[in-house]
Specification:
The chain is of the alpha/beta class and 350 residues long. 25% of the residues lie in helices and 27% in strands. The protein contains eight helices and 17 strands. Strand 8 and strand 9 form a beta hairpin. Helix 1 packs parallel to helix 6 and helix 3 runs parallel beside helix 4. The protein binds zinc ion (ZN) (2 copies).
Length: 350
């Protein structure tokens, strides 16, 4: 039986934190569940999952549908698309069997590359290598999520770029239905002996997925701002996520020009977050004046997650007094009114 290899290359950068990350997790489970209902898919489809944030890794090596076990997807800072493509090309070399006089190789691999952001690493060399050596023997479909994805870079990579509409909680479940339907159709066609017809994007619009056109607008900058901090009691990390507040029409005041970010939520993190984040951090800063809303600590319930140590890191704080910085172990004294207004803090990558 010739295998049909499907690679998912998934963006797990911090802008995905919260609901999108949970949805992506569910989408992967649902794709496998739906494909298992299809006898042709069950026989041919093999799946591999590569995740990328600041660091890249294969979280599920190529496996058949029955043996597939949904992984816990990681989360990290940064969007290393170039490295993710390098990892994909390595996995194709290792996992996809070529046809030789002694064996029938695998069917042409299909890759779903899903991203909601802009690359934070260099992509030129990887894209060139993909176009020269892989584009003709693999089918890559780029899927953007939300309005901040860099469609220009993705269009250099593949002609098949689609976008999931922003703002609806249904986006990723529609993606899951579309992927399982197209992959099942592909495996059925291969099963009855047709030559590989290729995954069709024609049905995408039926489920609300639109093709990305060359004329599509450049991505909007700085939609999401995130910060990491640690609980001063439990030392556990958390992520604060803020979204740009659209400027009010007719308001030309200074605050509108500066950009205001409203709190979306605070999410507890595991230590693996730092393993998936890029080592370098950007020098960009955003003033706390630009932020609206400070949530309590998700680990201990302290009233603010926005207390700044001299080492430049954030921790939670429950009011005035002395506490130990969970990052650098320094003793920090917070007075009345500190930890709230007007200081600049280092800002994570998107
Ligand atoms: Zn805490
Ligand atoms: Zn410190």
């Amino acid at each position: 039986m010739r295998r049909l290899p499907i690679f998912f290359v998934l963006d797990v950068s911090e802008s995905m934190a919260g609901e999108p990350h949970a949805q992506l997790q569910r989408a992967m489970e649902s794709i496998v569940e739906q494909l298992r209902q299809d006898p042709s898919a069950l026989e041919t489809v093999h799946i591999s999952i590569i995740a990328f944030a600041g660091q890249v890794g294969t979280v599920v090596p190529m496996v058949d549908l029955i043996s597939f076990y949904p992984p816990r997807l990681p989360l990290g800072g940064g969007t290393a698309l170039g490295e993710a493509l390098d990892e994909l090309m390595t996995r194709i070399e290792v996992d996809v069997k070529k046809t030789s006089p002694n064996q029938r190789g695998d069917w042409e691999p299909v890759i779903y590359l899903l991203t909601d952001g802009r690359p934070t690493d260099r992509t030129d060399a990887a894209i060139k290598r993909w176009r020269q050596h892989y584009a003709s023997r693999a089918h890559l479909i780029a899927v953007t999520l939300g309005g901040a994805a860099d469609t220009q870079v993705l269009k250099q990579l593949t002609d098949d770029a689609v976008s999931l509409d922003n703002g609806s909680g249904e986006d990723l479940s529609r993606f899951a239905r579309w992927v399982s339907a197209s992959v099942a159709a592909q495996s059925q066609a291969l099963d009855v002996g047709k030559n590989a017809p290729g995954i069709s994007l024609a049905k995408a619009s039926d489920v609300g997925i639109s093709l990305v056109k060359d004329s599509d607008a450049a991505p909007v900058d700085d939609q999401v701002v995130v910060f990491t901090g640690r609980c001063h009691r439990h030392k556990k990390p958390y992520l604060l996520k803020y979204n740009a507040v659209p400027p009010v029409p007719g308001n030309f005041g200074a605050s509108a020009a500066q950009g205001i970010y409203g709190l979306e939520g605070v999410y507890p993190l595991g230590e693996e977050y730092f393993e998936w984040s890029s080592q370098s951090s950007t020098n960009a800063t955003v003033s706390s004046d630009q932020l609206e809303g400070v949530p309590p600590c998700p680990h201990c319930g302290a009233v603010t997650t926005f207390a700044l140590c001299g080492c430049g890191k954030l921790m939670c704080c429950n009011g005035p007094g002395q506490q130990t910085c969970p990052w650098c172990d320094a003793n920090v004294v917070f007075g009345q009114g500190s930890g709230g207004t007007g200081f600049d803090v280092g800002r994570g990558q998107g």
